[in-house]
Amino acid sequence: MEEQPVQRSSYRLLLTLLRKLYIALKLFIERGHSDYAAQLSFSTILAIVPIFALILAIGRGFGLANYIENSVKDWLNSQPEVANFIIHFSNAYLEHARTGLFIGIGILFMLGSIISLIYNIEQVFDSIWQVKSKRSLRRIVSDYLSMIFVVPIIIIVLSGLSIIANTTNAELQQFIFLGPISQVLVQFLPFFAQMMIFLGLFIVMPNTHVKVVHALFPAALASLLMLMLQWAYVHSQIFLTSYNAIYGSLAALPLFMLWMHLSWYILLFCTELCYMSQNLDNYDYMIKPSEISEHTRRHIALLVITQIINRFKTGEKAPSPVELKQQTHIPIRLINDALYRLQGAQLIVEANLLDDNEQRFLPSQALKRLPIGQIIEQLDTACADKRKDKRMQVLATLDPQTEAMLHEVRQEALQKLNQSHDF
Length: 423
What we know:
This protein is mainly α. The chain is about 75% helix and about 0% strand.
């Protein structure tokens, strides 16, 4: 009798996991991540030498330069030519950066390449998480510089831990019980190290609050898939002997680019999975804002701003998108679309609460200045895509007299709305 609840719980857990994977894969295909993967692959290839040069420079300060080089060779053991290429150019980069005018230009180019990569990753992750708001200039400077100097230190620490683990493992091999256990743990060390890196990537890069519990499984899956990709690359070398014979040492570059492209596919899918894991309950309906009429989108925006204003009038806490979804029973994608339109019309602003990581929204103007007619007028005026503004397309084909008459009728209707109802 006790096994049935356990079996049912396991069955529900499996169904939930399969549902997350299915919806994440569906969104991954629908959103066309091939362009994102190509963009990030190109940015990564441009920034990989400056990134490693920065890590190597910091590592030399700790006396760990040789260990870092060996770690890179271990990490790219499937592509030794690429590892040697990166190490050689990084050392040359640092040597040239020490002398002459190049020191200023080199540092600027290095930081610019890394910042460009971080910015592109954030843009793609924000697109996946449907985050419309951008980091302020102050946050960009502080957050990006923190990443640039903290991440290399973390990588150096992980390299040091790997050295300690291998040394300890060699010493424990003389023990009957501890030897095999330590051997297994050392074998799993690359998996856990990559998992921690991907976990930090999934949590820090989107400009929104990502819960750790929802990023754990995607990070583990990303680490596993990356190791499988590396294993497949190593074992596919036997089929690429003719390719290597034709292109020689140049064969490493296109193969590395292919590996990089597939790696970003893996990371973007796992980012979708992370997003879906945190927002699964809000995806009861897979409807897109573009699939509903402009009339319905306007009504949803009016309903959303009504909820925001009512919460503000009663002194309650500003609502989050999830709370608005629960109050209105409208799918979360349409709620986010309405919030984006209302922000574009300058009708609401995001509340900055120090004790809360959730996005919350407040009316941007005094309540007396927000009658329903004014809201409709601002929503129509701030149409995000002018090509889809049917009213403007119609007016462009009318003669001036008819256009003036329609404008007068519209203004009269808006005035009546303003007089009949305000918040």
